[in-house]
Design goal:
Largest sheet: 5 strands, mixed
Shape: rod-shaped
Structural class: alpha/beta
Distance between the termini: 85 Å
Strand order of the largest sheet: 1-2-3-4-5
Radius of gyration: 31 Å
Helix content: 55-70%
Length: 277
């Protein structure tokens, strides 16, 4: 009931006007994120994205729903994954979605006034309802994709940080250094084990210096992980030397009954490396 070619043509002709009117309506003194940008390229891209929205949205009045949503998917994903929009609060973006919705509701009134008596109130109500329902679907869709992509990006960044926080540095004569810094929790300890085994193999390390002088806190589970790493490295032919063990870490290891017999221990990293030269 809501499909109408005349209404579609009326709206299509106004897509750029909608974009320009919408951008002018943004209160730049209160705007944040992408809407506050003064960069000409960012503004140009923002307007193009908005215009593309209108081109897609107008199709709701002439296209079957499944095809309409499928065609809209590319736009939703593009905006949800756009860096400028990712740096803009979701609540602010939602506000602009609904400001655009108001534009369409006003245009329905304008179209009806130009065609007095040609359309029943039932048809007019159907147009208004499809605008509201479709905007609700698109906004929900956008928020879901935006959060999903943000979470994936956050996990990827955290994994990169964890990997960079436990690098095996190749030294001379197939020796390597693993400097551990900061607080090591169970999750990070697991990543350290995985990364170290992989990097020692890739870099052909046969002797690894593990320096713990920068480790602030270590619990029993993490201590077990570190000693498990040393044992596993031994199985692939990598000898280990521990340095910089703090008293509290040594106490934890003793309380766990972890043996230092097969591990070379030095008080400092300089002493550890010097003993191999």
């Amino acid at each position: 009931m809501h499909r109408d070619k005349a209404l579609h043509s009326f709206l299509i002709e106004k897509t750029w006007q909608l974009t320009e009117d919408w951008y002018r309506s943004i209160d730049k003194s209160q705007a944040t994120g992408v809407y506050a940008s003064t960069n000409p390229e960012t503004i140009k891209t923002l307007k193009e994205q908005n215009h593309e929205f209108h081109v897609h949205f107008c199709e709701v009045f002439v296209t079957e729903e499944n095809k309409f949503l499928k065609d809209f998917e590319k736009w939703v994903l593009m905006i949800a994954q756009d860096d400028e929009h990712l740096n803009t609060p979701v609540t602010v973006i939602m506000k602009e979605f609904f400001n655009v919705q108001k534009q369409y509701l006003r245009l329905i009134k304008e179209f009806v006034s130009l065609h007095k008596g040609e359309y029943s109130q039932t048809t007019i109500d159907a147009w208004n309802n499809i605008i509201i329902e479709t905007f609700n679907k698109i906004v929900t869709w956008f928020v879901e994709e935006n959060q999903k992509y943000s979470q994936e990006k956050l996990i990827a960044q955290q994994e990169m940080i964890n990997e960079l926080s436990s690098p095996v540095i190749a030294l001379n004569n197939h020796m390597g250094l693993l400097p551990l810094i900061g607080i090591i929790d169970t999750q990070r300890a697991k990543l350290i084990v995985e990364n170290t085994l992989e990097q020692c193999t890739e870099k052909e390390i046969t002797h690894l210096f593990i320096d713990l002088s920068g480790v602030l806190i270590i619990d029993t589970m993490v201590a077990q992980q570190i000693f498990s790493l040393i044992e596993t490295l031994g199985l692939i032919g990598v000898k280990c030397t521990l340095s910089g063990i703090r008293p509290e870490i040594a106490l934890t290891a003793v309380q766990l009954g972890l043996s230092f017999e097969k591990v070379s221990i030095k008080s400092s990293l300089a002493q550890a490396i010097g003993s191999q030269q």
